Amino acid sequence: MIKSSVLKQLSSIVENKNFYTSQEDKITYSYDGTPLLEHLPDAIIRPTNKEQISHIVKLANKEHFSIVPRGAGTGLSGGSIPVENCIVLDMSQWNKILEIDTENLTAWVEPGVITSQLHQEVEKIGLFYPPDPGSMNICTIGGNVAENSGGLRGLKYGVTKNYVMGLEVVLPNGEIIICGGKNVKDVAGYNLKDFFIGSEGTLGIFTRILLKLIPKPQTSKTMLAYFNTQSDAGKTVSAIIAQKIIPATVEFLDKTTIRCVEDFAKLGLPTDIESLLLLEVDGHPVVVEEEAAKVVECCKRNNAIEIKIAGTEEEAMRLKTARRSAFSALARTKPTTILEDITVPRSSVAVMLEKIQVISKKYDIQIGTFGHAGDGNLHPTCLTDERNYEEIGRAEKAYEEIFVEAIKLGGTITGEHGTGLAKKKFLHLVSGYTAIETMRTIKRALDPNNILNPGKVFDL
Amino acid sequence: MIKSSVLKQLSSIVENKNFYTSQEDKITYSYDGTPLLEHLPDAIIRPTNKEQISHIVKLANKEHFSIVPRGAGTGLSGGSIPVENCIVLDMSQWNKILEIDTENLTAWVEPGVITSQLHQEVEKIGLFYPPDPGSMNICTIGGNVAENSGGLRGLKYGVTKNYVMGLEVVLPNGEIIICGGKNVKDVAGYNLKDFFIGSEGTLGIFTRILLKLIPKPQTSKTMLAYFNTQSDAGKTVSAIIAQKIIPATVEFLDKTTIRCVEDFAKLGLPTDIESLLLLEVDGHPVVVEEEAAKVVECCKRNNAIEIKIAGTEEEAMRLKTARRSAFSALARTKPTTILEDITVPRSSVAVMLEKIQVISKKYDIQIGTFGHAGDGNLHPTCLTDERNYEEIGRAEKAYEEIFVEAIKLGGTITGEHGTGLAKKKFLHLVSGYTAIETMRTIKRALDPNNILNPGKVFDL
């Protein structure tokens, strides 16, 4: 517990209305999007300028309390779950787009800007910010940067780190630096910027973010293909890439997910198929036509039962809803949804899908799998009930086995959700102990009092 | 000086033929591509496996000598110049392409692979490795990764770091880790990989590198446009980007460079023009035709005197030679060529070009400027003689002023050559002292004995 004298000092840094210690408020901030994890913070603080943040960080070093930064709290690895003796630093009010520079194709934003709001603003002027995490309508850019979030357009356009050109960061010692800038190329000094990206709030607090924008693709074509087997869907993905086509989107849904989506969203999806692919190609109209035709051919050659091609923007949105609503659709079927995030090299997607099926049978748990098949990034999602300890135990064992199998295939335990609390005990499987020790060495050097989001990613 | 007993231990780690201490050998390894800098190493060692490197690194920690890793030694910021009490670790023999994975579009290579050799190998099978530094015919991938090299295709395709998916690294303590892999997305733990990229041999020695490949563009169109003023060339670049066209290449040559190139390569370039742009668009044939037409229109609208469009691959090569030979052409005119590497936000290229002209007049030095105009990355190149101390003094003052002006425009002191020895005293101008202290803190933590390439990037 943080001493009341320290809480008093904290409250004096910000206006009264920006400091919360009531039980209701603590409960509100005690969890994020991750199941099975929660912890009450000692207080919540909403700083309104970077000097306040610096002040808070310096006080944390002096008084030895911890700071857990938080955007919208949509994270799926427990990155913003409070820890012992901590305050939550709520950045959600930092929601201004500060500048859109149409000459250099960049945008300076505050970390609390909602991702889809940025999409809308830049698309109005013919520009494009590709990263589109599943939670894009509620998550914040700051959280996206902290977790290096992905999304549906990752295959062609990359993930958040590919669009961060600069960061203003409050360091663990309270000092403030800017790394990066509007230069397309910059190799002066170490690449601190990319090291902060994905560091999950453990190395610094972002106060301003400079993003790269690109010209908006002229047009796009969205398709949905149904398959009788998972393996046919997997082969289709490989066949498309082998044709040297890189679609913007190649998303996979398995049978369980399809049924839940149809039940939830009533899109008219057939519920007797084994899997479907959502495919989107974008760019110049001629290229889109040509690539779409080739994609359709790949689907047919790999036994697609039916292929739907969106004729209008509205139809495209409806097809995309099948994928966009996957998590919500699964989540409403059972009290607890454990969403995992393994990634394997693209060539191993079909094998991995099969392994997930085998493992879910072995442990007798219900898993619906969907994900970014083109990226090899799959979300096997366990539908369970956290009050059923026995089943949760089996689910945990199943996930451990899924992680091990993914890593055997050259994969990783998390493609876009982060390590956080939820996956830190598995980090050694993918990184090895020596690399973790290297990470620890850097964390200790930059944050010797371990005040910034301690216990996330790894224990010190 | 390294003690002879230590040299003996070193020589016992590798075969005799891979350890050199003769004066001739020391002289050969005493310099790299950077003018005005040289230093004799105490020995040169050519390890043949990673265990030997680990052994050497551990001995360096025990006996307190330094290790300067080196590829082809083409660097332009002094990154591979020997320091006091050091051995050079020559990695140029590690020149095997270990695997090209056509399913996952990746290549595992040894660090000593020559960049253009990799280009040729992957293009044979319809794939593409975009980074193409000026020295691509002699430089190594390891050096490219250590410096995060750019090239002519950076505008559309990005730089080396955008293509490094994994690294095997011998750490400063001699331990070996692998970071990254074939996963398109991976956020497990801190992003060590991107932190090693561009760390200029100060944080680790690369022993294997996993690169991302992309499908080879179907076709391309190369153009050369001549202008009566620098400002017209600058405006053309902005006009092209404003049309939402991202060419693969937008290269600029000023009058001095054009004259030297023509004198050297006899390409039939007019020597009375003020500047030229080399432009290349690539991709789908229809898009290429359309974009090329728009590019030509932008050139005309901004007063291009003449526009040459390559009709064949050979003609394209000839046009590209105008740019590719710029450095060599300038270098042969005077005994010493000091090549700088500032970058400014794209929108400020025209202003920066003007400032360089004003500064070169003020200090009465001859500067030829060429560079990646689309990236804002310019190479103002001073033609001088290192024996003329007085002129070198003026050149140094001129460059300092150029750096300051670049930074005022939001630019940086190095876009693709690195900080090394040559630019470390200016690093604070772009990064600020607090960020440098953050870099130092990490370096000290990972390399407490400062054995890996000490004195490069910054002093400890």
Which tags fit this structure?
460 residues, 3 domains, Uridine Diphospho-n-acetylenolpyruvylglucosamine Reductase, domain 2, 7-stranded antiparallel beta sheet, alpha+beta, 21% strand, Vanillyl-alcohol Oxidase, Chain A, domain 3, homodimer, Uridine Diphospho-n-acetylenolpyruvylglucosamine Reductase, domain 3
Question: What does this entry look like structurally?
Answer:
The structure is a homodimer of 460-residue chains. With 460 residues, the first copy, chain A, is α+β, with helices and mostly antiparallel strands. The first copy, chain A, has three domains: 4-90, Uridine Diphospho-n-acetylenolpyruvylglucosamine Reductase, domain 2 (2-Layer Sandwich); 97-215, Uridine Diphospho-n-acetylenolpyruvylglucosamine Reductase, domain 3 (2-Layer Sandwich), CATH 3.30.465.10; 219-408, FAD-linked oxidases, C-terminal domain (Vanillyl-alcohol Oxidase, Chain A, domain 3), CATH 3.40.462. Chain A is 36% helix and 21% strand. Chain A is built from 16 helices and 18 strands. Chain A has a seven-stranded antiparallel β-sheet with strand order 15-12-14-13-17-18-16, with helices on both faces. A five-stranded antiparallel β-sheet of chain A has the order 5-6-10-8-9.
Task: Summarize the entry for a quick read.
Two copies of one chain form a homodimer. Chain A folds into three domains: 4-90, Uridine Diphospho-n-acetylenolpyruvylglucosamine Reductase, domain 2 (2-Layer Sandwich); 97-215, 2-Layer Sandwich (Uridine Diphospho-n-acetylenolpyruvylglucosamine Reductase, domain 3), CATH 3.30.465; 219-408, Vanillyl-alcohol Oxidase, Chain A, domain 3.
